[in-house]
Amino acid sequence: MTFRFQLHHTDTATGARRGTFTTPHGPVETPGFMPVGTQGTVKGLTIDHVASTGAHMILGNTYHLGLRPGHETVRALGGLHAMSGWEGPILTDSGGFQVFSLKGINKISEHSVVFRSHIDGALIDLTPEHSIEIQESLGSDVAMVLDHVVALPAERDDVQQAMERSIRWAKRCLEYASRDDQAKFAIVQGGLDVDLRVQCARDLASMNFEGYAVGGLSVGETPDEMYRITAATTPELPADKPRYLMGVGRPIDLLESIVRGIDLFDCVMPTRNGRNGFAFTDSGPIKIRNAKHKTDTSPLDASCDCLACTRHSRGYLRHLFIAGEMLGPTLLSLHNLTYYQKVMRGAREAIRAGTLVEYIATKKNQWGIT
Ligand SMILES: [Zn+2]
């Protein structure tokens, strides 16, 4: 069997899960965080950097790679693994989120979404089948179905129609897909409406996907709304399949979602914030450009074993950012991804030990969250 999801522990206090998702390119320990490699690269980092953070699976972007260099070019270069040199598991999104969030949409119909390329303005007709075709050329381990994402807030009718269309598109993706070595994950939509979310989750659960995602969140709603929708959705999903919360989020959001039954995450936050000089640490966030770090010889995070923390001082890292040197964003991205993986590793160990509630309380205390 090419794909397997083994559940090792379920936390009795919260329902949080500790598992292993096996793919053709290796195992993914869950709960797990996937760094985002939009254009076939995690921005500013080499693949050895990314591997050194402890990441198991990374994310690639169908929208961006489909437009540039184009899926046929990626296939000619041996697929996304060979092209990028990343030998571990890769998940690709469907392009839906970018198409619906970049506001280049020309026409949405039952057949497809027609949008303008942000690169050259060309009209692109993206059907569910074409999204799968692109992802099969990319050769990712996990392909996401094309979904219809609505911007929130929206009228309930609009949310419902997009949700129902997402179910029909998911079915088309499943029927079109031809690669046995690529798992297909469905995406639950339904905005902030619990009834729609539950209905969508049940309909998708009746189809044979290898995993399930909760999509359309982290788009401006409050954390409490996101937690409420996540908590209402996960009980409707098959217990023996991995669950992926798309595009989330802050370290606290990851922990709060793990206790609501989520196994996988991705987010640009650690790398984007790293490029902007913002570091996540056990003593709360650090803005490295701040003048108080100017002559500070201490490491960014004394408890971190990444290159930025073991070899360099806060004063040097600040200098790199002030001078506009590219190494600054590289080192802080490396640190933040290392930090995210450490938080997830801690969560996995806590689930195994039955101490997840205490672990989260400790983290909230360290981060100054009440
Ligand atoms: Zn570090």
Automatic annotation (TrEMBL):
Role this protein plays: Catalyzes the base-exchange of a guanine (G) residue with the queuine precursor 7-aminomethyl-7-deazaguanine (PreQ1) at position 34 (anticodon wobble position) in tRNAs with GU(N) anticodons (tRNA-Asp, -Asn, -His and -Tyr). Catalysis occurs through a double-displacement mechanism. The nucleophile active site attacks the C1' of nucleotide 34 to detach the guanine base from the RNA, forming a covalent enzyme-RNA intermediate. The proton acceptor active site deprotonates the incoming PreQ1, allowing a nucleophilic attack on the C1' of the ribose to form the product.
Protein name: Queuine tRNA-ribosyltransferase
Active-site positions on this chain: 93 (proton acceptor), 266 (nucleophile)
Similarity-based family: Belongs to the queuine tRNA-ribosyltransferase family.
GO molecular function, one term: tRNA-guanosine(34) queuine transglycosylase activity
Cofactor(s) listed: Zn(2+)
SUBUNIT field: Homodimer. Within each dimer, one monomer is responsible for RNA recognition and catalysis, while the other monomer binds to the replacement base PreQ1.
Lineage: Bacteria, Pseudomonadati, Planctomycetota, Planctomycetia, Pirellulales
Domain tRNA-guanine(15) transglycosylase-like: 14-366
Alphabetical list of NCBIfam families matching this protein: Q_tRNA_tgt (TIGR00430), tgt_general (TIGR00449)
Region of interest (RNA binding), ranges: 247-253, 271-275
Binding site for substrate: 93-97, 147, 189, 216
Keywords: Glycosyltransferase, Metal-binding, Queuosine biosynthesis, Transferase, tRNA processing, Zinc
